[in-house]
Amino acid sequence: MRRHHKPYPALTMDRIMIELGAHGGGALEPINFCQASSSFNPFEHVDVAMTREDLARVAPYAGLNGSPGLRRAICKVYREEYGYDLQPERVCITAGATEALLLAFAMLTEPGGEVILAASHFPPFRCLAHMFGVQCRFAPLNERNCLDVEQLARQITPRTQAIIVNSPSNPHGAVLEAAELEAIASLDVPVIFDEVYQSLALSDEQIPSAVAFSDRHMIVNSFSKSLSLAGFRVGYLIVPETYMGLVADVKATTSFSSSWAGQEICEALLEHRGELLSKHRALLRERWQCFTQVAESLGLSLCPAPRASLYGLIDISSYERDSGRVAIDLARNLAVGVAPGSDFQTPDPRFLRVNYAAPQAHIEPGLRRIASYLQRYH
């Protein structure tokens, strides 16, 4: 029987995780700066107790679009923080932001079409386009490492089915201003606004949201980053009213139901959202300061600081190695995981994405291993 193997976009980050796993029990403790999660622990600040009866109650499937309580709590956040009257019927709870993106692609794209991404982008955007048989067009960045709004309009063609906007962005932590979000929303193309880092500013500023334009476009978010609940896999997708029926149909054929227990915990934590975000941002500022001080002391060159994210970028453009090779060598030989710039952009931008929100005890030894490797090739 003939077997057809469809090529799939390969990410060096996936190989990094495999290489790190091979170090278990070895001489060097693996340090994972590659994985996109924060070491902030919300349960140090808020006690969420579940009895046996509670667990039995949430063991079955949750509602198709998610629990009504969590959807109402999400709407309350947008009403209080942005003055936007979001209705719970427009919110679909998903298995993290990943499923929210998958649902959006399923509703907006068809094989043979195109989506527009920033030249430097979260790699799964590209992978989802491949899954749905869609071509990618890449819009350039501006001097702030943001999607260039003026250039974006020139990328639109008759085949354009959606624009994917990530602000704050991964990997740069760059932020589009409110007027730029409005300009993008005014283009005659559906937009998927990915806002998973929107709550994690390194300052006290409020990062703009595109929720005011969600009557025409889609908003992706999750609790993996804001509340540091990556393992709970709870995210959400906000859709226009015209997509409310369709999103339920698509959800029914993906995960059918997101974790009911996870939704209950997220709803309980959202009652303390202000306190938790304040403490989380304080931790991120502390880690960023530690990260930059250690990097400077070791002679590592950093790209411009993020406005909101979990990542710092180490500039390796002066070294005679491409970022993918450096990342593999670091994982294989020094048990340090980093994400190479080549996963985010072509041609290789020659940086390493490092998660500065990792445990503080990992920052100095991890950066020291990176510096010792790079010194060999300077």
Q: What's the CATH architecture of the largest domain?
A: 3-Layer(aba) Sandwich
Q: Please, how many helices?
A: 13
Query: Low-confidence parts lasting 5 or more residues at pLDDT below 50?
Result: none
* SSE series: HEHHEHEHEHEHEEHEHHHEHEEEH
The main sheet comes to: 7 strands, mixed
Integer tally of domains: 2
Extended strand count: 12
Give helix % range.
25-40%
Helix and strand content put the structural class at alpha/beta
The dominant shape is globular
- Beta-strand percentage? 5-15%
* Through-space gap between termini: 52 Å
Mean pLDDT across the residues is 95
CATH topology of the largest domain: Aspartate Aminotransferase, domain 2
Describe the structure.
The mean pLDDT is 95. The relative contact order is 0.17. The termini are far apart. The chain has 378 residues and is of the alpha/beta class. The longest helix has 25 residues, at 273-297. Strand 5, helix 7 and strand 6 form a beta-alpha-beta unit. The protein has two domains: 12-42 and 275-375, Aspartate Aminotransferase, domain 1 (Alpha-Beta Complex), CATH 3.90.1150.10; 59-272, 3-Layer(aba) Sandwich (Aspartate Aminotransferase, domain 2). It is 38% helix and 13% strand. The protein is globular, with a radius of gyration of 21 Å. The protein is built from 13 helices and twelve strands. The strands form three sheets. A seven-stranded mixed β-sheet has the order 2-8-7-6-5-3-4, sandwiched between helices. Strands 9-12-11 form a three-stranded antiparallel β-sheet. It has a two-stranded parallel ribbon with strand order 1-10. The protein has helices at residues 12-21, 52-57, 68-82, 96-108, 123-131, 149-154, 178-185, 223-226, 244-252, 260-270, 273-297, 323-334, 360-375, and strands spanning 31-32, 91-94, 114-118, 135-139, 160-166, 191-194, 218-222, 235-238, 311-315, 336-337, 339-340, 351-355. InterPro entries: Aminotransferase_I/II_large, AspAT/PAT-like, NHTrfase_class1_PyrdxlP-BS, PyrdxlP-dep_Trfase, PyrdxlP-dep_Trfase_major. Pfam families: Aminotran_1_2 (PF00155). It is an enzyme of class 2 (transferase). Keywords: Aminotransferase, Pyridoxal phosphate, Transferase. One of its GO terms (molecular function) is transaminase activity.
